[in-house]
């Protein structure tokens, strides 16, 4: 395993400066936003694809920094009921896959997307319970008329470009937990896997070690981000929380830098379980902690991950 980071938190820096900063604090590999919600601050696939010299310069930037370009991200919603939004997300996914192929990057991280409740919908509709029965009808439409047909075609595109697709299991989208991830893979195969981000599963009540074990062989990427549950607020109103992220003291939970939601023992168990599940890729730090600066959050996260990471599998032991 390697210590990794998204470059998105350093979007205010030129790419070369961001890589130098990350290298200096101990990051070995990076995940770069190429569209969707992460934006195109350090990478515009369409521009790079039409200019080979710029593409070569972009690739050399990582070589000169001594840091690996591991992953491209384009978290969009390609099944959004607004056709313009969906088309933009699809175009960005297509461009990102093509760019990954040119760069030799083997995985693209994205969202599964969330559809509306009918062809006439204006906005996505995330279903969280099975009753009244209307909700199950909505789910059936979303999965069978929107989600699976779109990704069956998009999966073929990914395979043509030699990339795997890692869905960030994120509430608000069709694939948001282990069960929905496995259901999706059963339908469309191993072109698709999980971007395992504990922060979104913690507040849902998942046991993270148990979830990693359940997804053995299906984890293609890992985001290192923590969540702190506010026991008092959660006791009063539960975990489904629409209070704005900036109102930290009123929320049931907030995103935190690694180690500030759960301690070192938790992260040791997570990294060890990832190793047993066969994951041997980057631990990509994602900073969304509203209580500390980007620089402080990244430094603290890198220090924690470096402390608990398992970088090499052991040689055969004497009893093996």
TrEMBL record:
Chain ranges of the Xylose isomerase-like TIM barrel domain: 20-307
KW Isomerase (keyword) present: yes
InterPro entries on file: IolE/XylAMocC-like, Xyl_isomerase-like_sf, Xyl_isomerase-like_TIM-brl
Alphabetized UniProt keyword annotations: Isomerase
Highest taxon of the lineage: Bacteria
PANTHER family in UniProt: HYDROXYPYRUVATE ISOMERASE, XYLOSE ISOMERASE-LIKE TIM BARREL DOMAIN-CONTAINING PROTEIN
Name this protein carries in UniProt: Sugar phosphate isomerase/epimerase
Any one Pfam family match given in the protein's UniProt record, by short name: AP_endonuc_2
GO molecular function: isomerase activity
């Amino acid at each position: 395993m390697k210590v990794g980071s998204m470059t998105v938190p350093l979007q205010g820096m030129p790419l070369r400066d961001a890589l130098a900063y990350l290298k200096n604090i101990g990051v070995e590999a990076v995940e770069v936003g190429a569209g969707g919600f992460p934006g195109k601050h350090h990478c515009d696939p369409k521009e790079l694809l039409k200019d080979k010299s710029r593409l070569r310069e972009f690739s050399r930037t990582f070589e000169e920094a001594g840091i690996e370009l591991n992953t491209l991200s384009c978290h969009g919603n390609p099944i959004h009921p607004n056709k313009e939004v969906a088309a933009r997300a699809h175009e960005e996914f297509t461009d990102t896959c093509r760019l990954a192929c040119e760069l030799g990057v083997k995985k693209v991280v994205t969202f599964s997307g969330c559809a509306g409740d009918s062809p006439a919908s204006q906005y996505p509709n995330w279903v969280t319970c099975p009753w009244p029965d209307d909700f199950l009808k909505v789910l059936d439409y979303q999965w069978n008329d929107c989600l699976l047909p779109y990704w069956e075609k998009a999966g073929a595109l990914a395979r043509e470009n030699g990339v795997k697709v890692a869905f960030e299991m994120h509430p608000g989208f069709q694939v948001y937990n282990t069960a929905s991830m496995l259901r999706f893979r059963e339908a469309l195969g191993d072109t698709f896997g999980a971007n395992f981000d504990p922060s979104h599963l913690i507040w849902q009540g998942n046991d993270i070690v148990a979830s990693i074990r359940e997804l053995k062989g299906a984890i293609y990427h890992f985001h290192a981000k923590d969540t702190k549950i506010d026991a008092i607020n959660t006791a009063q109103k539960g975990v489904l929380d629409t209070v704005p992220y900036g109102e930290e003291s009123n929320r049931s939970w907030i995103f935190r830098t690694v180690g500030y939601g759960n301690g070192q023992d938790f992260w040791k168990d997570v990294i060890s379980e990832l190793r047993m599940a066969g994951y041997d890729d980057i631990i990509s730090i994602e900073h969304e902690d509203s209580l500390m600066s980007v620089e402080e959050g990244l430094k603290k996260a890198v220090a924690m991950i470096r402390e608990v990471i398992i970088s090499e599998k052991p040689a055969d032991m004497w009893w093996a």
